């Protein structure tokens, strides 16, 4: 495999495209318009420059990545020749299904189509295509260029060949894969959502400040980030969508904290808007 397409140039899409490009793959990054892609290119270029200047990237890898990255508005052009297409759009099932139906018509029959979802069903997505055996979830983690894990989630019809292929691909981009049988929230999202939601409830109840809740988790339980910091990084709107899906599918213990709902309604979405559980400049 030499060419990959990433659909969606948000935080996760940019990170996935970057990771494949520095590993030597030709990458097409697709999104709705040139303005969105221009912002993504600027962000990826800054990350490439910073990684090169700090010595994390050798000159050859840096130069190759610059050449490997292509920004394309037309989905047909971006996806038609790729062996793997990774969708990285919002956690909305209707949107994901619409994209997969289009990709199913555009891509060669042997192309594997993956969704970068933290909660949603590759079985449900695959059932809307003519290739359910080639549909899989590849759950990357933010920030993608630093985080080593990919959860590979097998749908009901996903073939062994598809799972082995994407696990091998994970190794090629210097990631480690864990195989998960499909169940709402997989492994990490279920754990993260419970911990984060409880931290939000404690903050709402006045148990401790956001800073002290996060400090307690970092220093007492050796978490690299506190749960409220992490929620701000992920995006509170994204976390709320995940919680709502888990609440709907798994029940009461995943009921979103009222404080999270209030923050999202107020437009306090975390780092991307400059305000969440913390203030950012």
Considering DSSP H and I runs of 4 or more, what fraction of the residues is helical? 40-55%
User: How would a crystallographer describe the biggest sheet?
Assistant: 8 strands, mixed
Domain module tally: 2
Strand content range: 5-15%
Named at the architecture level, the CATH assignment of the largest domain is 3-Layer(aba) Sandwich
| Number of contiguous helices | 12
Assign the CATH topology of the largest domain: Rossmann fold
**Helix-strand topology string:** EHEHHEHEHEHEEHEHHHHH
Q: Can you walk me through this structure?
A:
This protein has about 280 residues and is α/β, with parallel strands linked by helices. The protein has two domains: about 180 residues, Rossmann fold (3-Layer(aba) Sandwich), CATH 3.40.50.720; about 80 residues, N-(1-d-carboxylethyl)-l-norvaline Dehydrogenase, domain 2 (Orthogonal Bundle). It has twelve helices and eight strands. An eight-stranded mixed beta sheet has the order 3-2-1-4-5-6-7-8, sandwiched between helices. α1 links the parallel β1 and β2. α8 crosses α10. The longest helix is centred in the first third of the chain and has 20 residues. The radius of gyration is 19 Å and the shape is globular.
């Amino acid at each position: 495999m030499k060419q990959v397409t990433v659909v969606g140039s948000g935080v996760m899409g940019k990170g996935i495209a970057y990771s494949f490009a520095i590993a030597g793959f030709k990458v097409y990054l697709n999104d709705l318009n040139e303005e969105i892609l221009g912002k993504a290119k600027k962000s990826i270029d800054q990350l490439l420059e910073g990684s090169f200047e700090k010595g994390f990237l050798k000159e050859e890898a840096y130069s190759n990545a610059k050449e490997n990255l292509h920004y394309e508005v037309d989905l047909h052009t971006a996806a038609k020749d790729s062996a793997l297409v990774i969708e990285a759009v919002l956690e909305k099932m209707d949107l994901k299904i619409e994209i997969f139906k289009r990709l199913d018509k555009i891509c060669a029959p042997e192309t594997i189509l993956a969704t970068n979802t933290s909660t949603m069903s590759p079985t449900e997505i695959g059932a809307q295509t003519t290739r359910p055996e080639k549909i899989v979830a590849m759950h990357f983690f933010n920030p993608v260029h630093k985080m080593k894990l990919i959860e590979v989630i097998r749908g009901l019809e996903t073939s062994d060949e598809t799972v082995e292929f994407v696990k091998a691909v994970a190794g090629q981009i210097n990631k480690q894969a864990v195989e998960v049988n499909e169940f709402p929230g997989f492994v990490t999202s279920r754990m993260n959502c419970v911990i984060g939601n409880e931290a939000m409830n404690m903050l709402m109840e006045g148990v401790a400040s956001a800073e002290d809740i996060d400090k307690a988790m970092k220093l007492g339980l050796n978490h690299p980030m506190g749960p409220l910091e992490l929620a701000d990084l992920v995006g509170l709107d994204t976390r709320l969508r995940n919680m709502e899906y888990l609440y709907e599918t798994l029940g009461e213990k995943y009921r979103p904290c009222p404080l999270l709902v209030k923050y999202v309604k107020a437009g306090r979405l975390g780092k991307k808007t400059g305000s969440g559980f913390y203030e950012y400049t």
